[in-house]
Task: inverse folding
């Protein structure tokens, strides 16, 4: 099994506030989740160690143009990529089904330090949380 990130809100007060919010606020909340998910996907693709390009091509949205050696990455295919959106739950899952990406994140490559996926996820999750809190505060101030 590869590795995935679940972009979820685990702040119960924020979750409750968003659940009780009008539809237009939830739509704005989903936009924040989605934009931050694209940002973390870009960061991970940039940080991904590359030998043949399969791991990078497979993270999140499939990008065949990121494969640098098609002969050596002949098993690479769109099924490697993981991207699942659940707007109603404000939840998004991204990742890869490529097994060795977990090893890359654990530090098996000298190209990147261990935890590059985790670091990107933490950075963008914090940013997403701040943006969602600001959205809720703005809406409460209007009400």
Result:
């Amino acid at each position: 099994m590869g590795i995935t990130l679940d972009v979820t809100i685990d702040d119960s007060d924020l979750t409750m506030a968003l659940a009780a919010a009008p539809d237009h606020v939830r739509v704005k909340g989903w936009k924040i989740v989605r934009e931050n998910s694209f940002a973390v996907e870009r960061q991970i693709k940039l940080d991904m160690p590359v030998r043949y390009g399969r791991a990078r091509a497979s993270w999140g949205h499939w990008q065949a143009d990121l494969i640098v050696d098609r002969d050596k990455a002949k098993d690479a295919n769109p099924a490697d990529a993981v991207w699942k959106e659940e707007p109603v739950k404000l939840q998004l899952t991204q990742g890869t089904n490529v097994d060795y990406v977990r090893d890359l994140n654990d530090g098996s490559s000298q190209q990147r330090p261990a935890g590059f996926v985790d670091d990107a996820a933490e950075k963008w999750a914090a940013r997403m949380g701040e943006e969602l809190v600001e959205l809720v505060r703005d809406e409460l101030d209007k009400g």
In short: The beta strands are 3-7, 81-86, 91-96. The chain has a mean pLDDT of 91. The CA atoms of residues 30 and 90 lie 6 Å apart.
